[in-house]
Sequence to fold (124 residues):
Amino acid sequence: QLQLVESGGGLVQPGGSLRLSCAASRDTLDIYHVGWFRQAPGKEREGVSCISDSGGNTIYADSVKGRFTISRDNAKNTVYLQMNSLKPEDTAIYYCAAHLGWSPSLDEADFGAWGQGTQVTVSS
Fold:
């Protein structure tokens, strides 16, 4: 069964950058579309970005377009989320997840495998 582990979270000042990693084990990641989700305190989890199994198709939430970039290295069984121009409202626990559907998605109901999450805090 696919297992996912996120890393790279931390505390950063507004305007700063972080790169999150999602490493897979127990299965090859290159057959899965992989998404990033986040959940802020008191809010529902929301989809941030998703990348297709081949890496050829990506989608983003409007709130992060132009600031976040998702990518993958299938040889390393890892997906990344580069986050630039971070804002306090980006503060949340970030999760990666994988699914075998037809196309990338930001609907968490499509995803069956989830990581444990990594905290991102944007504050001065």
